[in-house]
Amino acid sequence: MRLRIPLPTLMAGVVAGCAATATLLPVPALAASGPASHPSASARPAADAGSAAPGPLGAFRAADPSEDLAPAAKPLPPALLGQVVMGQPAGTTVQTAPRPADRKTPPARPGSASRSATGPAAAGAQSCTPADFGGRSGADLVSFVEGSTPDCVSTLFNVTGTDAGGIFKEAKMLTVANAFQNLAAGYTGDNSTGILQLVLFMRAGWYVQSYNADAVGPYDAALTSASRAGLDAFFASRHWTDVTDNNGTVLNEVLVLTDSANLQGSYLGVYKQVLNSYDNSYNAFPKMLKSVNAVLSAPLWRGNWNPDFVKAVSADPAIGTALGTFALNHKDLLGTANSYLDVNAGNDLGRMAGDGPAVEAALKDQVKAVLDAVRITGVTGPLYVHTAYQANTFDPGQCSYYGICDLPAKLTAAVLPNQLVCDNRTIQTEALSPADLAAVCASLRGEDTFFHAMVKDNGPIPGQYDKTLTLAVFANQADYLTYSWAIFRNSTDNGGQTVMDPTDPNDQAVCVMYQKSWNDGFTANVWNLNHEYTHYLDNIYDMKGDFSTEVSVPDIWWIEGVAEYESYAYRGTTDTQAMSEAAKHTYTLSTIFQNTYRNSDSVRTYPWGYLAVRYMFEKHPADITAMLGHFRTGDYQGGYAVYNNVGTGYDADFDAWLDSCAGGACYAAGPTALFDQAVNGATVTLTGKSVQTGPGRITAWHWTFGDGGSSDQQNPTHTYASAGTYTVALTVTDDTGRTASTPAPVTVTTGSGGGTTLPTCADPRTDALGRNCSRSGLSATAGHLDYLYVYLPAGTSTLKIDTSGGTGTAYLYYNADTWASPSAFTTSSTNPGTTQSITVTNPTAGYRYISLYANTDFSGVTVSTQF
Nearest 5°: phi and psi at 698? Predict the structure, then answer.
């Protein structure tokens, strides 16, 4: 199956865009996704002229690999762009805009469970709903917050409306702030007292109030004073500087709280102490690294829009000097997993230099020193780009001194030097050869003809501009992440993005892409080239208005589905994942017609969008014509009515069509690359299942294994030197020279060279597993259980659970519906010792439950999940 791209929170003004990888985008909710709410002007820090302040940071959370589409967008304003590209530790992200919860919180673990480092309530079964918090006050509220898990309290970042008002009125915030002060004075260096939950509650309150000011009411000097008193007590305690993960877990949130409460100017000394204390010994403590980064990504970024912070820095610019010293002294981090720390320091330094004449005079030499110490390209590129972009944006008067005037042009010349004008398209590229450029141009020209024949348009929609397009193609994802945002002002927590506003006569549409290292079936390996170009064409010829107008009704089935359908049909290749999904009959057509970016994961959006669009073209083309007739005039309600009024009328026929489709009727003529995989330790066995549709036969197979190895066997085996997830790609060729390619991820938990197990799961809740990750050091005494859980996204085909290592005998149990145990399981593995394995096929989306039962005492066991 082809790798897919999932969906994050969308930004206002987007047009359906380039394929992406996962994380949350810092943007208001779209009309189609529920009502957007905006903070009152008084709820935000003061902003520089022409640069709106970024909003407070929300909850930290594990990056969700089930979500990774980013739509296209208008260019982001500098303040928001700087926050979007701020680095976080691998596997984590931070919420930067309201996002209604689309998952239920997993139930509390049974009372017999005892493994968690999350505070006094970890083993309880306490309820966690907005009403549980909103219905309490005073000591009862404090006790309930302290008795909740951090995971539970973090759900409060998503409350809105009456829930927001019931939970976060100032009187309740004052109660919790005073409780925080009481605990902070005797802070123990860990969360044994539940102090973390109080801090999270306060952070959530400041965050929610900024977006729901009318419902929550104003926050005034009383709350600011109470917050400061608690923070002062915390930073006066003995243990806040402990270099341990237990302290880091709490300290990270407390440092962000200084920013949430807009008290950045009061804690410059604390921030300097954190930065100056860091050395490479911290690298052994991931939570302490997060704490250092909390200073960089929250108060030292957002504080620049707070007049009190700017005044404090002007009086004492030493914090800026500390940033410059940090950036210069820790260049050894660049190119490592912790490079985000050094890059963020440069990012903040460049921004801070624009905080007025006094700060500029004190810091401009620091900025220049950083820029002069690194190169634009190579491992130092990210530090150069972040420092230069912020300085060029916020301290433009010194651009000549810094050598960064017209920075986008300078970066383009350095990393996108090759160009080809292809009719109304300009292709700028880092590494495409002249032959590849010509092939990309030919592909786009051919797609024009194919698209117009498919949708039967009457030419460009009047009032839609962007008649020319720039396609920027980076050589790889790393360079895309480093340079694209600073040149094109797009968010880069994705796999590419189209930046356009077709309603703006001065806009220049840009589609930013990158090449894959393996054969993805696109011309010159330009990831999703034809899918993305379809989005551009759709917005010129089919969809009047900007993206926020387009998605005012549920029409994502068309926006993403037609791009998928065009991409596969034009290239004459089979959508193998859509064929696999068709056989499952997961969704009715009437359900897919209601797709939005909020209610649909990548599987429902892409393969099911493809299936819906293909079915409608084949069985009901008149409905498509009628729908587009409305869309082309901006009548989205009328277009929606065309298919919404069908109701369930096509569902039965669609269901029967799915059987025919999966049975071969929807396979493209020629070869289709298919394969199965089986992993045993470090070795994967690959079995070709490719099919030929129509005349001819498959005569050649070529595999790439994602680690530099390859094979031309039909059914190869391959052994990996290190544990990890690799992309295996199969390309098949038939006797007429036609080819087809399919990639798929392969995960091995060990390596032939003694590689390590899968990385530690990133979720802060220690009983949470995730995709292709592990938890180690598990233990229990005889007769007791260690409970864990995992969230499975829709479309998961196989869940594999393994345990290994340690001593004793640990049985493995799995339950799809409730906490697993020897008396409540659907699948188990009960071998002697600690090596167990369970494989679950075609599980449905949602929380699934796992346990280790101590047949005898066990310790040091590692459990891993792959899906």
Answer: -75, 130
In a domain, residue 513? The reply is: no
Residue 679 belongs to a domain with what CATH number? 2.60.40.10
Return the pLDDT at 817. 82
What's the full length of the chain, in residues? 867
Q: Which position has the token pair 């233990």?
A: 779
Buried b / exposed e over 224-256, threshold 16 CB at 10 Å, is eebbbbbbbbbbebebbebeebbbbbbbbbbbb
**98-137 per-position pLDDT tens digit:** 765 444 455 556 643 333 333 333 334 478 889 999 999 9
Cβ atoms within 10 A of the Cβ of 587, count?
A: 23
| CA-closest candidate to residue 677, choices 630, 742, 737 | 742
Average pLDDT over residues 732-752: 86
Render the burial of 74-85: b for 16+ CB within 10 Å, e for the rest: bbbebbbbbbbb
Find the helix or strand (DSSP H, E) in which 254 lies.
Answer: helix 245-260
Residue 417: DSSP 8-state: -
Asked whether residue 744 falls in the same domain as residue 778, the answer is no
- Is residue 789 domain-shared with residue 739, that is, in the same domain? no
Q: What is the largest CA-CA distance in the chain?
A: 79
Same domain, 812 and 851: yes
Mean pLDDT of the chain: 86
Query: CA-CA distance, 807 to 544, in Å (whole number)?
Result: 65
Inform me whether the pLDDT recorded for 428 exceeds 70.
yes
How are beta strands 785-792 and 846-854 bridged, if at all? antiparallel
Residues contacting 662, CB < 8 A, separation 6+ = 579, 580, 582, 583
Please compute, for residue 385, the number of CA atoms within 13 A of its CA located in the half-sphere on the CB side.
29
Q: Rounded CA gap, 796 and 840, in Å?
A: 10
CA atoms of 472 and 203, how far apart (whole Å): 39
| pLDDT score recorded for residue 108 | 58
**Token pair for residue 208?**
């929610």
Q: What does the pLDDT look like over 62-81, one tens digit per residue? A: 655 443 444 556 778 888 88
pTM assigned to the model: 0.81
Decide if pLDDT at 12 tops 70: no
Domain that holds residue 817: 773-866
Q: Per the structure, how many domains does the chain have?
A: 2
The 10 Å Cβ neighbour count of residue 297 is 26
Q: How confident is the model at residue 460 (pLDDT cuts 50, 70, 90)?
A: very high
**For residue 107, what pLDDT is reported?**
57
Assign 3-class secondary structure to 544-576.
CCCHHHHCCCCCHHHHHHHHHHHHHHHHCCCCH
User: Domain check: are 860 and 779 in the same one?
Assistant: yes
User: What's the pLDDT tens digit per position in 192-224?
Assistant: 999 999 999 999 999 999 999 999 999 999 999
Same domain, 855 and 785: yes
How far the first Cα of the chain sits from its last, in Å, is 14
Give backbone dihedrals phi and psi of 73, rounded to 5 degrees, phi first: -155, 160
Q: Residue 29 pLDDT more than 70? A: no
Nearest to 840 by CA among 794, 802, 811, 799: 799
